[in-house]
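FAQ: What does the model actually see?

It sees only this:
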Amino acid sequence: MQQRESIRNIAIIAHVDHGKTTLVDAMLWQSGLFRANESVPERIMDSIDLEREKGITIMAKNTAINYRGVHINIVDTPGHADFGSEVERTLTLVDGVLLLVDAAEGPLPQTRFVLKKALEAGLPPIVVVNKIDRSDARPVEVLDEIYDLFIDLDANEDQLEFPVLYTNARVGTATLEHKSPGTSLEPLFETILGTVPPPRFDPAMGLQFRGAMLDWDDYVGRLVIGRIFNGTIRQADRVAVVHRDGSVEIAKVTVLYGYEGLKRVEIPEAGAGNLVAIAGIDAIDIGETVADAENPVALPLIRIDEPTVSMLFSANVSPFAGKEGRFVTSPQLRDRLFKERKVNVGIRVDETDSPDALRVSGRGELQLAILIEMMRREGFEMEVGKPEIITREENGATLEPMEYLVIDIPEEHIGAVTQKIGPRRGSMVKLVNHGTGRVRLEYRIPSRGLIGYRTAFLTDTRGTGLLNHLFDGWDVWQGDIAHRQNGALVADRAGRTTAYAIDHLQARGVMFASPGDQVYEGQIVGENSRDNDMDVNITKEKKLTNMRSSTADESVKLTPPRIMNLEQSLEWIREDELLEVTPKSLRLRKRALAGRRRF
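And it is asked to produce this:
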């Protein structure tokens, strides 16, 4: 085996919001990639609008810098377990990982998840304790927790000999001693060159390239992004695509791109160890191999964890269908979902008994909610059902997915949180009090026990709690879990809502509609204070008579309606209810709109 000393491939892995993308920003600046007067947005790697709004990385992306003549390819990965398929794919591209941990929060569930994947792949880690400027930073204790985590995950002796750096990504400094402040990221660059091994390849082998990401370019069409493991690839080469089923298809490389900074640069050829993008190959899926046309040899396929949550997607058939979206038919919805399945291996799309509905499965509620949000922004209208847990049968027993739940809350909210988790079949594994006024609770809980809990958790902790969870294998069915306790207030006719009607209905529960909203029969307009559903007339107008009182209409005081976002709406609905999603609106409705069909 030979080595390419001029290349290093590294992935940055961490929990959500521990500073991965901010650190990549600083590395790009200090590599001299931008001019001093160049205008560059914050978190430049978060190129999707949703990533900037939510402050999380959804899609893995790669960039490259040059340091002392070495080309360092950097892959920024998502930190949320729902997008774990992105992490699993990108770890096949790299030879080392940079594990980022918050100096105050320490290792959290997703830290465990991404590190486990990296250790299984045998990648050498570099540990970076970030945000050492925080007032509550505790770098020494956090480093001990990181060592405990490595031992817990059965790291071998070589993996335990990891270098440790302390950084402030926002300012762009790194140091080997947490007590002495750093001046630049130079110690980090030096550590990467010294720790991450150069790519190794077999000079006797022909071309072997594995596609890990798919992209689209309006000029050259579909792009396959991945790593060359052996051989050389050139523009206009004839290559073989080895599919999952073993079949081989011949294709031609029309354009070859390499990476310099944030730009794709057209290059004539690339050798082993390089991360490149290839245009001209249409029939290829993620994980498949592009090989030598004369003697094609496939690389091992990428294994992706199974989905745990599924939802039904169907075309919008409500009375307001087609008024706000551009893509409203079921064939358009079907094409879009099957296109997503080709690009995102973490999503599974299956046919159902109905030709208009498809079952979409993913890692968690958040992954499916992100897909819905991206589709509605593209102009799609659809109806989606309640998220359901995927179960499996083994030895005559029904197994369900379990989650490892970590909750970080102020001490005064312990009672409220434990009271809610008990009925959801959560069993406490660990309770840690750091002595800072905050407590960490760790539970093992069924995945379905978390559906609908996040909103209640934020209410119980006054928005001060942190809730993180991680897939923790399968276990026998844990028993029934009560869902929403309250029924729904359902409009019994179409029309425009009035302040007069809402004023009289407020005593019945919490309203979701404002005066002047258009509603249809079967639309849910509020949450009943009791456990049963109730049909209500929310369009009722005040009868006009000759009698007038100067103060009668001034006394109407309306409570502001509860406006729920996409995730909250998905958590709220029951099996007999749907969420209507359009580019402009989210409406809750009953599956059967007419009252006589529901009762």
